Amino acid sequence: RLRDEKDGLTAREMLEQRGFSQDSIDQFGLGFAPDAWDFLAARLTGRPDAVQSCLDAGLIRTAKDSDRVYDTFRNRLMFPIHDETGHPIAFGGRRIDEDEEPKYINSPETELFHKSRTLYGMHIARREIVSAGTAVVVEGYTDVIACHQAGFRNVVGTLGTALTVEHATALSRLCDEIILVFDGDAAGRRAADRAA
Questions:
Q1: With 80 as the cut, is the pLDDT of residue 144 above it?
Q2: Are 160 and 176 a contacting pair, CB within 8 Å?
Q3: Can you give the pLDDT at residue 182?
Q4: Cβ atoms of 73 and 104 closer than 8 Å
Q5: pLDDT category, 191, cuts 50, 70, 90?
Q6: How far apart are CA 27 and CA 9, in angstroms?
Q7: How far is it, in rounded angstroms, from Cα 156 to Cα 161?
Q8: What is the predicted pLDDT for the residue at 188?
Q9: What is the DSSP string of the chain?
Q10: How far is Cα 73 from Cα 81, in angstroms, rounded to an integer?
Q11: How far apart are the first and last CA of the chain?
């Protein structure tokens, strides 16, 4: 829906304001979840296996007072999260409306997706990390994309967690040096201290 002339306009404007190029949008597979309760859910009608898969992946939810399913991600810029081989295993959604809470929603953890083991952008950065002998770790999706767009392609991001032992172990198989570039606020400094 990101490319839809009407539906995707606000999301495209947001990406443009952040300076993201079309190449970056394509490379990271960015998308848009429309402001609708059933954009995805309506497309699953009559497909119980697909409904269950989407429930398991956290893309849709069941209403508490009925069996009706509804979309988890609504009116959000969508960031596919991939495993190291490039297969999508989860999604992150950033609010379009700045008054909406929370700012980010991630897919729930599943058999395939564990925040403590997954680094955003690893499938793209892996070769560059090996080549440089260094990995740069930032805090989020947009930081990773901005760095790659600026030519720093050995950059990966954590997914709302601090750098974990599992993250460090995965990176240590690829390089000898990890540089942390977290936000300069108190929370960012605490996260860097914990990671160290």
A1: yes
A2: no
A3: 87
A4: no
A5: confident
A6: 20
A7: 13
A8: 78
A9: -TT-TTTTHHHHHHHHHTT--HHHHHHHT-EEE-S-SSTTGGGGTT-HHHHHHHHHTTSEEE-TTSS-EEES--SEEEEEEE-TTS-EEEEEEEESSTTSS-SEEEPPP-SS--TTT--BTHHHHHHHHHHHTEEEEESSHHHHHHHHHTT--SEEE-SSSPPPHHHHHHHHTT-SEEEEE--SSHHHHHHHHHH-
A10: 14
A11: 40
**73-121 pLDDT tens trace:** 999 999 999 999 999 999 999 999 999 999 999 999 999 999 999 999 9
Tokens of 138: 């930032």
What is the model's pTM? 0.91
Which residues, 6 or more positions from 125, have their beta carbon under 8 angstroms from its beta carbon?
Answer: 135, 144, 148, 153, 154, 155, 156
